[in-house]
């Protein structure tokens, strides 16, 4: 149960990091 919860949290955090990184790259390329 705890393992599944940790796995879900890690997946969500990874998705957030990837999304933020892609957003930052797009903004940096515009300037």
Q: Describe it for me?
A:
This is Type I toxin-antitoxin system Fst family toxin. Keywords: Membrane, Transmembrane, Transmembrane helix. It comes from Staphylococcus equorum. This protein is an all-alpha fold. The mean pLDDT is 94.
Average pLDDT works out at: 94
Largest sheet, strands/sense/barrel: none
Portion of residues within helices: over 70%
Low-confidence stretches: none
Shape: rod-shaped
Measured distance between first and last alpha carbons: 46 Å
Strand content: under 5%
Radius of gyration: 14 Å
How many alpha or pi helices?
1
Order of helices and strands: H
Number of strands: 0
Class per helix and strand makeup: mainly alpha
Task: Name the features.
31 residues; mainly alpha; 1 helix
Give a nutshell description of this structure.
This protein is mainly α and 31 residues long. It has one helix at residues 2-30.
Write the topology of this structure.
Blueprint: H1 2-30
Protein name: Type I toxin-antitoxin system Fst family toxin
Transmembrane segments: 6-25
Keywords: Membrane, Transmembrane, Transmembrane helix
């Amino acid at each position: 149960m705890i393992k599944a919860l940790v796995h879900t949290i890690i997946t969500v955090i990874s998705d957030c990091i990837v999304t933020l990184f892609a957003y930052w790259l797009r903004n940096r390329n515009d300037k």
